[in-house]
């Protein structure tokens, strides 16, 4: 199968930093360690409330990384302006609600086609690869292709939640939905990524989906790094991804 890329999300290094204020731990330092450990790219989500990543972090990442930055953001005028100023390699449009702990579910592209098509047009013209963070609903995949996105990132949160809760029949149904969604997206010319909630136990079946080209994993890797270090956590994730791919 084709090589499966690993994008490491460093948001929760910033969460830890912000718990005490100050500058430590530094998300850029974590990103550079991730690169050295084998990450193919770095993901950072600049939320409207700046609860973890800050504007200065995006500047530091753009100036310091040697691998591509995947800039996650809501579809707002403020975030569009920031993305156009920095012109990261990739921009992933995600749903965002102030009251949520983390991104819950995928973006409703099908219900907002005209606005999102207009919103991503300048980003595409600036050279950013635009990704839509969505569920595996065929309507959302088809709408993402219709508006001109280059990539869809399939939300794996429900699959991971069903696994953690022991609902194995529901987990397998969700995994089958992800497989079918990946096939459809690939057939429409979209590059397929996946992510949200993946860990050592759940990554294998998603990594084995042939059409998936990239996984974006963050919270688990940062949490696991407390126990074994960031480099070893990434190396073990990379090993499991490669084993599933083989």
Description:
With 246 residues, the chain is of the alpha/beta class. The protein has a single domain (5-245), classed as Aldolase class I (TIM Barrel, Alpha-Beta Barrel), CATH 3.20.20. 50% of the residues lie in helices and 17% in strands. It has eleven helices and eight strands. It has helices spanning 11-20, 27-37, 55-64, 77-86, 113-125, 138-147, 157-165, 168-187, 203-207, 219-228, 230-245; strands at 5-9, 41-45, 69-73, 90-93, 129-134, 151-155, 191-195, 212-217. It has an eight-stranded parallel β-barrel with strand order 1-2-3-4-5-6-7-8, surrounded by seven helices. Helix 2 (27-37) crosses helix 11 (230-245), helix 5 (113-125) packs across helix 6 (138-147) and helix 10 packs across helix 11 (230-245). The model has no long low-confidence stretch (mean pLDDT 96).
Entry summary:
This protein has 246 residues and is an alpha/beta fold. It is 50% helix and 17% strand.
Question: What are the key terms here?
Answer:
246 residues, alpha/beta, TIM Barrel, eight-stranded parallel beta barrel, 17% strand, globular
* Cα-based radius of gyration, to the nearest Å: 17 Å
Mean pLDDT: 96
CATH topology category name: TIM Barrel
The CATH superfamily is identified as Aldolase class I
Structural class: alpha/beta
What is the correct CATH architecture? Alpha-Beta Barrel
Major sheet: order of its strands?
1-2-3-4-5-6-7-8
Helix fraction bin? 40-55%
Number of strands: 8
- State the shape: globular
H/E order of the elements? EHHEHEHEHEHEHHEHEHH
The N- to C-terminal Cα distance equals: 7 Å
Looking at how many chains there are and whether they match, the oligomeric state comes to single chain
Q: For the record, what CATH class applies? A: Alpha Beta
Number of helices: 11
